[in-house]
Structure of Ribokinase:
Amino acid sequence: MVLNPAPARELSDELLALVDIITPNETEAEKLTGIRVENDDDAAKAANALHKKVSVPLLLRWVAAASG
């Protein structure tokens, strides 16, 4: 099962156990991990933490704003 966890909310361990792939954006990843995502490093930390929690492939939908 592919899970897009929108809208951002806490998900039960029972549901996460059924997931084959998860595709959160930064807000959803923050809700699932407790890690605030404000930059690329935060996104990587949240992705790693979520991967440890669900042990399935994930695609973190994160868009970093360019400066300059």
User: Anything to note?
Assistant: The first strand starts at residue 2 and ends at 3. The chain has one domain: 2-54. DSSP finds three helices and two strands in the chain. The CA atoms of residues 3 and 24 lie 8 Å apart.
